Amino acid sequence: MELLKRNAAEHETACARVAARFQEPLLRNYVRGKMRSDRVYPAAYELLRSSTNPILDVGCGVGLLAFYLRERGCFQPVLGLDIDARKIRNGREIAASHYDDIELRFHDVQEAIPVFSGNVALLDVLHYLPPAVQEALLSHLTGCVAPGGVLIIRDCPCDSRPRFWMTWLAEKFAQTISWNLDVPLHFPSRSSINDVFSDHEFERDIRPLWGASPFNNHIFVFRRSKRVGAPDRPGALPPPPIDAVAEASSARGG
User: Fold this and answer.
1) Which residue of 71, 135, 147, 217 is 20 to 30 Å from 22, comparing CA positions?
2) Burial (Cβ within 10 Å: 0-12, 13-18, ≥19) of residue 195
3) CATH number, domain at 141?
4) pTM of the prediction?
5) Are 46 and 111 in contact (CB under 8 A)?
6) What DSSP state is assigned to residue 147?
7) Cα–Cα distance measured from residue 64 to residue 35, given in angstroms and rounded to the nearest whole number
8) What angle do CA 16, 17, 20 make, to 5 degrees?
C-alpha cells in the first residue's frame, strides 16, 4: 500500500513539473490534465525504468513521454520524431532549457527511420497512417529493438464497440481544433499489429489501458528475446542535421 501511495505521489509530482515547463496557460493546463489521467505514462515508466538502452519515441509530439521519464528519474538518451513542426519546436525549447540528452526532430515516419537500437515507443501514431505504411513502419521498428528491449505501442484497435466510436470522435475533435494533423484516420486491428512480430523473436503483452476514460486505448508490449539479435536494416537514412527542424518549420509556415 505504501509503495502504491509513493508511486501515485511521484506520478502527480512529475505531471505537475512537466506541465509547469509550458508557458501558455491553456497548454499548461491541458498537459497537466492529460498526463495525470493518461495511464500510458506510468505504464511506460514501469517498462523502461530499469533499462539503460536509449529510447526512440516515434510520434513524440511535444516530448511529453521523454519529459515525464526524466521527472521520474529515467536518464536514458531519448530521440523523438514527429511530423508536426509546431510541436517539435515547442518541445525542443523545453528540452534545451530543462532536460539533458533529449533530442526532438522533425521527421516523417513514412520516410526511413534513423538507424537505432534500444527501446521504442509508438504512442497514438498508427491510426494516422494508411494500413500499408503501418505494416512497413512496424516491420522496420522490429529491427530497432535491442535484445531484451521493448517496443511499446498504444493505439485504439478498430472494432464496433462504443469505446471505439468515442475514440474516433475524440480524434476528429482534436483534428477540428488543429491540435492533431488533419489526415484520414485508419485505426489498426489487433491482428494487424500482432502479426508483424515473430513468436520466435518477441514475447508479447496486450491489454486494455483505458482506465477511467471512455476510450478504446490498448497497450501492446513486444519484448525482444535476449538470445535473438536485431536484424540488420540496410538502407536507413542517416540522422538529419539539427537545423532541419528549423528549415522544415519555415517551409511549412509553422
Assistant:
1) 217
2) exposed
3) 3.40.50.150
4) 0.85
5) no
6) T
7) 8
8) 85
